[in-house]
């Protein structure tokens, strides 16, 4: 099973983890690493490496970070450069987990899983106003 490490500024990682557990139940090989204000990047780096050791069972690991270019992302990217079976994604939302959390056993290639995770996350960002406008613009079904 592909392992997931959630990380980001403040408590976004643990908050997302808690939401995942609330909606989908406890998940194996899923861990959250927060980066609270006042923590150093050295502490974060050590925490990410400890999380990696805790969840990695050899099928690959995907770091899911809150923000492109932030410290959690940069450190995850550094770790990913050390191994070919680690991927990094920036931007997280519950939709990506709703679609992909239970696919971790079925997708054996970590790069393919990363691509599908990103697509699922993008599909979860929608505008209600745009959806309603599109619906109003659709022709009514003819009877």
TrEMBL record:
This is PTS galactosamine/N-acetylgalactosamine transporter subunit IIA. The keyword Transport applies. The keyword Cytoplasm applies. Residues 1-125 form the PTS EIIA type-4 domain. Its main location: cytoplasm. Transmembrane segments: none annotated. Pfam families: EIIA-man (PF03610). It comes from the Bacteria. It is found in: Cytoplasm. Keywords: Cytoplasm, Kinase, Phosphotransferase system, Sugar transport, Transferase, Transport. CDD domains: PTS_IIA_man (cd00006). Coiled coil: none annotated.
């Amino acid at each position: 099973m592909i392992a997931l490490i959630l990380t980001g500024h403040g408590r976004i990682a643990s908050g997302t983890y808690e939401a995942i557990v609330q909606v989908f139940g406890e998940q194996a090989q899923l861990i959250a690493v927060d980066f609270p204000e006042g923590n150093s990047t050295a502490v974060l780096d050590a925490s990410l490496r400890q999380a990696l050791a805790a969840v990695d069972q050899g099928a690959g690991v995907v770091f899911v970070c809150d923000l492109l270019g932030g410290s959690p992302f940069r450190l995850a990217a550094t770790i990913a450069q050390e191994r070919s079976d680690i991927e990094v994604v920036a931007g997280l939302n519950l939709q990506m987990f709703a679609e992909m959390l239970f696919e971790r056993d079925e997708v054996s290639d970590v790069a393919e899983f990363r691509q599908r995770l990103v697509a699922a996350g993008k599909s979860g960002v929608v505008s209600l106003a745009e959806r309603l406008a599109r619906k109003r613009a659709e022709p009514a079904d003819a009877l």
